[in-house]
């Protein structure tokens, strides 16, 4: 058990990072409200899967690519910002659920959510700090990196899922089409505002 002692402070760090607002949590709130918790689960699992790959990749040398080739990082930032603005527009202009046509509007799927993590600055900050601060110097680096990344996602799952549940709870107070449009407009605006942090 002493060999795994590094996981507990890492878990506390992940709770503090994943339960606070960011692009993922804003989008999960909107998705939970508009589509419900169950339909938002692929989005949640996509965040977990994408962050797991990103965090493990950082520990195994992915961060060095960004240090050596700044153009790669900037390209991902621009693409991520463009995609985030597209999602913000979709959220802001989404009609109320009861006025939505059958099949119109869908939550993010697993792969879309996973791919977005590589352009999400908060995910990069979390991953870099997690691996720099909590990855043990001794032992097998790959095993420790996979273990730490996996544990981080186990801890993070209920924290981000809480935001989808929060959105679902908010939906119970939105009784009119106007209330839904205001809510979706605010969520879309908050999602778009995250671009400032990506390009800043």
From TrEMBL:
It comes from the Bacteria. GO terms for molecular function: amino acid transmembrane transporter activity. Its main location: membrane. InterPro entries: LeuE-type. The chain crosses the membrane at residues 6-23, 44-65, 110-134, 146-170, 182-199. GO terms for biological process: cysteine export across plasma membrane. It is a multi-pass membrane protein. One of its GO terms (cellular component) is plasma membrane. Keywords: Cell membrane, Membrane, Transmembrane, Transmembrane helix. It is found in: Cell membrane. This is LysE family translocator. The lineage of its organism: Bacteria, Pseudomonadati, Pseudomonadota, Gammaproteobacteria, Oceanospirillales.
């Amino acid at each position: 058990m002493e060999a795994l002692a590094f996981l507990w402070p890492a878990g506390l760090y992940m709770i503090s990072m994943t339960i606070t607002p960011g692009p993922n949590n804003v989008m999960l709130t909107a998705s939970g409200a508009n589509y419900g918790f169950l339909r938002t689960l692929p989005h949640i699992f996509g965040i977990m899967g994408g962050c797991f790959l990103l965090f493990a990749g950082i520990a195994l040398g992915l961060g060095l690519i960004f240090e050596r080739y700044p153009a790669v990082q900037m390209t991902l930032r621009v693409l991520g910002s463009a995609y985030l603005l597209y999602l913000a527009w979709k959220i802001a202009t989404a009609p109320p659920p009861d006025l939505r046509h059958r099949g119109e509007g869908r939550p993010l799927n697993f792969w879309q959510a996973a791919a977005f993590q590589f352009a999400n600055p908060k995910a990069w900050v979390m991953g870099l700090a997690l691996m720099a601060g909590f990855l043990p110097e001794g032992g097998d680096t790959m095993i420790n990196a996979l273990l730490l990344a996996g544990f981080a996602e186990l801890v993070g799952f209920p924290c981000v899922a809480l935001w989808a549940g929060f959105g679902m709870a908010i939906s119970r107070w939105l009784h009119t089409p106007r209330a839904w449009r205001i809510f979706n407009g605010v969520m879309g605006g908050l999602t778009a505002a995250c671009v400032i942090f990506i390009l800043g």
